[in-house]
Amino acid sequence: MNIYKRFLILISCISFFSCVQGRPDNSHLPDPQIKAGIAKLSGKIVNYLPKEDIEFPSMTLFLAYPITAEIVKLEIPINNDGSFYSEIPVECNMSIGTIYSSVFGKYFCINLISGKEVRLEIFPDKASNIKINLSDNIGLSTNDLLTLTDDKMALKFLQGKSEALYKLKLDDFVHQTTILMEERINSAINSVDLSPNAEKFIVNEYRLTYLKGSLLTYKEFISLNYRNFKSAEMPEEFIPEKPGKSYYKFLKQFNLNNPLYLYNHSYFEIFQNILSIDTLNISYIADTPIENWLIDVKANLADLVGFDSGQFYDMLAANAYAKQFNDEWTPLSDKQKENIKTYWGNGEISKILFRRNEEIVKLSGLKSAPVVNETPAVPIEKLMNAIVSKYKGKAVVIDFWATWCGPCMDALKQIGSIKTEFKDKNIVYVYITNTSSKKKEWEAKIKSFGGEHYYLNKEEWTYLLDSFDFTGIPTYLFYDTNGVLKNKHTGYPGNEKMRKMMEELLE
């Protein structure tokens, strides 16, 4: 999936909540409420005609989980008559996700309501346009739901004015970045017709996108900015200034206690950024009681964010556990469970963290120590055969991936349930990356999913991808127990197709 399409998904996977019982007042966005629940989605693609080239017709739902810090990707099968039904775990009593299907070739947003069945009707036409009917809305019109993924708006934001910011001192960088942010936001929202409610949350989403993509990640952003404006006479090496703690005082401008941010998927990404910044000196939560951990956190952050209480700190603590889940696939310790119960009792955050912990327990049961292999010392044209022959008598699934590749990391999470089904089967998982994945980060990531690993140089990587006509990652090769290549696929194919291709290897 290209960066542009990922951006469309990410700006649209936004969660909504309401503390109002019954049907919400659509004159304003409902107040937020975190809630562990199940939402039901049913409906039909009207005048649906199955396509012969789509073996497993489905819709993909992208949904934000703000407490467990994930954008989940859920496959919803489409029946032969065009109908569909799915029960979807949610972390909020109201949520909005983005739907896409190759059946109709469009992205659009829908809302989900915990404990309720929302019905969706989709009307595609011959010109590859769609209309939708939704049985319940939470303050956004049908036009809003279709327009929030509008190419024109995303393009205006992505291709707005750029400047050579690497020349600026830190305070000047913050000032100029803020000006550019507001210019891009205004250009984007003025390019389409949105209701005031839709404008409100998309402005917040864009602001959070800028916060996570430039201000909080200064070193990476400014290095890229230097490369973009670099001329032939400029030196190759560029060492950005290292921000001190006082640099982050811009956080006050974003009022991170604002409950409206709970609508936006990027909110949890801000917490993940903050937890990872060494300069902010936030310790790993480990077995520390939450109340004690927050005392130290507030000592470091309160002056920077402008407050010492509120939802921000609850979300930060919850995301600290989510970071453990997502980075390490490590379940909660008994002491951590006790700390969560002591601090949040039987509240919704506790329920959500414990629900996710059950999933992590299952995944960790599959996790073995990763095996890092030396690249076989053979001519480059014999490299793949040398790798596959090492696992003689076993079926082999080869995954070309990279630590910086968002779709690759999403796929690694999705395949977890499939690996559970094949736990005792004669199959081995081989993961291949190259030097574009920083070695230290690669070594940390592979601990979370085990398997057999190869770290290729650029020439080896390029040769293998070219030899199989691959143009992107994640990309997969499927070898049977006799070492015969049975299938190949670019992009995660979805769990149903992945399951079928793996079963075929064992026949």
Sheet of most strands: 6 strands, mixed
Whole-number average pLDDT? 88
Helical percentage = 25-40%
Number of strands: 14
> What distance lies between the first and last C-alpha atoms, to the nearest angstrom?
31 Å
- Proportion of beta-strand residues: 15-25%
The helix count comes to 16
What structural class results from the helix and strand content? alpha/beta
Label the overall shape: globular
Q: Which stretches are low in confidence, meaning pLDDT under 50 for 5 or more residues running? A: 1-26
Strand order of the largest sheet: 9-12-11-10-13-14
Instruction: Indicate the radius of gyration in whole angstroms.
Output: 24 Å
Output the helix-strand order: HEEEEEEEEHHHHHHHHHHEHEHEHEHEEH
Structural account:
The protein is an alpha/beta fold and 507 residues long. It contains 16 helices and 14 strands. Strands 9-12-11-10-13-14 form a 6-stranded mixed beta sheet. Strands 4-1-7-8 form a 4-stranded mixed beta sheet. Helix 5 packs parallel to helix 7 and helix 10 packs antiparallel against helix 11. The longest helix has 20 residues. The radius of gyration is 24 Å and the shape is globular. The chain starts with a helix and ends with a helix. The N terminus is likely disordered.
